[in-house]
Amino acid sequence: MTYAKEKEVAIAAATAAAKLCEQVRADIPQAIEKKDKSPVTVADFGAQAIICQALAAAFPDDPVVGEEDAKELRKPEMAETLTKVTHYVQALSPDATPEDVTRWIDHGNGQVSSRYWTLDPIDGTKGFLRQDQYAVALALVENGEVKVGVLACPAMPLDGGQTGALYVAVRGEGATMVPLSGGEPQRLQVVMADDVANFRFVESVEAAHGDQSKQNAIAQAVGITTESFRVDSQAKYGIVASGKAALYLRLPSPKYPDYRENIWDHAAGAIVVEEAGGRVSDMYGQPLNFAEGSKMMNNRGIVVSNGTIHDQVIAALAEN
Ligand SMILES: Nc1ncnc2c1ncn2[C@@H]1O[C@H](COP(=O)(O)OS(=O)(=O)O)[C@@H](OP(=O)(O)O)[C@H]1O
Ligand SMILES: [Mg+2]
Ligand SMILES: [Mg+2]
Ligand SMILES: [Mg+2]
């Protein structure tokens, strides 16, 4: 088994971070506004602290490229928020001080290099605030290729009535889903072409994060006639990997034509789908570039599929 230690550490860290997030969610979190006007919560900071602490201890030489940083949190007017974050972190790491917490968060300020981790402590913060889907997303990238991906989706409903999924993939070794509450890992397989009931497509809840009218037109062009399934965060990748949808489309929003996708919004999800037999590319069929920087400057839009319809989707995009 390759990357055994990386997989073990990533699973333990993402599972712990998911626990922290669920604790915050039960307490009804408040949104804090970031400089770019997007929301962040004490759970985003706490989850980044917990995961970075674990990665720094196990792999001290690996940079971590995370979404959040502690710059604002260090300001005196944020002391109360930092106290709250520290309180949630202490439930998992009792000796943690506020200084530890900000230091661990800023361990996530690393740069893309030949080997690095990328972390989205909460992907779908808006979904998290709405008590909808969200994901803790962690991936290891080597020489531009995602090697390990772990996606914790604490609000994901499972067959059989439980809630909470952990999706795990290692390059060349397949993808599995294990309930966050524990149990046997189940092998993931994307939907087959003849599984009509699951031949659906997923897209973001937030209309401004895509182009919903074009997404619908492309889905129809490849024979998907049912309405989209709208889900927050990289949970969408988990749904495609589990064979519960054939396609996830994320086309550039007409409102933000210059938007570029972040590596942490896709790395973990992409390997989970690929290892379940699916395909991931940008809207021109180009591979996602995880080798350059935190934003994928040369990619536009995201297409995630079960594989069988991928070329058809790219062809439909070229025509529309
Ligand atoms: N304009 C635009 N276009 C595309 N994507 C954008 C845009 N603005 C933000 N973001 C990123 O969207 C991430 C949330 O993913 P989703 O859209 O799938 O979920 S959600 O519907 O917003 O909950 C969200 O990730 P988090 O910040 O981690 O929640 C953002 O990185
Ligand atoms: Mg995100
Ligand atoms: Mg995030
Ligand atoms: Mg964010």
UniProtKB/TrEMBL annotation:
Named cofactor requirement(s): Mg(2+)
BP terms from Gene Ontology: phosphatidylinositol phosphate biosynthetic process; sulfate assimilation
UniProt cross-references to Gene3D superfamilies, sorted A to Z: 3.40.190.80, Fructose-1,6-Bisphosphatase, subunit A, domain 1
Coiled coil: none
InterPro entries per UniProt: DPNP, Inositol_monoP_metal-BS, Inositol_monoP_superfamily, Inositol_monophosphatase-like, Inositol_monophosphatase_CS
Catalytic activities: a myo-inositol phosphate + H2O = myo-inositol + phosphate; adenosine 3',5'-bisphosphate + H2O = AMP + phosphate; adenosine 2',5'-bisphosphate + H2O = AMP + phosphate; 3'-phosphoadenylyl sulfate + H2O = adenosine 5'-phosphosulfate + phosphate
Chain residues that bind Mg(2+): E67, D120, I122, D123, D265
Keywords attached to this entry: Hydrolase, Magnesium, Metal-binding
Molecular function GO labels: 3'(2'),5'-bisphosphate nucleotidase activity; inositol monophosphate phosphatase activity; metal ion binding
Annotated EC: 3.1.3.7
Domain of life: Bacteria
Record-linked PROSITE patterns: IMP_1, IMP_2
Family of this protein: Belongs to the inositol monophosphatase superfamily.
UniProt protein name: 3'(2'),5'-bisphosphate nucleotidase
Species of the source: Planktothricoides raciborskii GIHE-MW2
